[in-house]
Helix-turn-helix domain-containing protein
Amino acid sequence: MLFIPLPFVVTILMGLLLWQLLRKREAGNRTDQFFIVLISIYMVQSILLGLRWGYEITAVLPLQILLASIIAGLAYLSFYSLTVADSVQALRIKKIWPHLLPVIVVFSLLLFRRDLAALAIIVIFLIYGVALLWLAYKGPDVLIAARLDGVLRSYRAMQITGLMLIGSVIVDLLINFDFFWSGGHYSPSIILVTNILSLLFLGAAAGVALNNRTSDENGGEAEPASQVVSTETALTTEQHIAIVAELDALMREKQLYEDMELNLKRIAHRLRKPPRHVSEAVNRCRGISVSVYVNNFRVEEACRLLRETDEPVTQITFASGFLTKSNFNREFLRVTGMSPKAFRSQMVASDVRDNASN
């Protein structure tokens, strides 16, 4: 009977995920390449894991270690590309080359001091894990290139990736303790299980972030770059209020929330303000993130459509700016405390009572 190691099954699952994401990918879009390469490397790593522990082919171990050094930096670059106003800049070699240094160090250690390569991986994962959590510390609005309809999912994916990198460090320490305590009796099982789970979670996190990246890197009807205010000086309360007032007008008069590909970068272009200033203004004046702010307008529009039309809920989902029904239902429940169908039923019942009383 042919034995198929579990990591190979994980590879197939990630392959299906990547295939689905590539089907949705806009032709010529280059800024999602980090995530695509990242998921692809996860797949290769999973294959190597299956060869190592499924068929006991130990010759793949150096390649596993080398790929691990690539994964940490690539994971950081993938999420970092969602935080910059010009995502194409993140693809330039001057942004990438510093993250090649850990790979060069690990490669050198594999050639000359293989006993130190595992320690180097621990340090690399710890550094990049902390770096990702530091990005996450700035809040969801830091992901300016992520679609507002899914920015919270992308934000959670970034947090999970950072925690998983740090978790790998903890697992490595447990393995070292196991070798010290029992001579490594439990280490093979620990390595196999934790690696499979890590690859599954990391692959899913990268897929979520890639799926929630906007496909239009030009920002729709954005103002010319020369007209965008680029100053990063601190703003006064009055300036924050002015930004929010302008944004309110843009939402109500232009119905900008109906754009399903809307993100913070695109809003900033329309306002001719840096994304950080827009985020700070909304947080300071409204006490919420930009994604919640926009979704509040979307839910308000959905309520109007549910109350005034007979359109199906699915159609109203897209008409109000939501890309997925699951996110629509979640945000609608958050704002109104009920489901869209319950809201419509309540409105119908209210109208019947009003007509009867008249």
In short: Residues 216-231 have pLDDT under 50 and may be disordered.
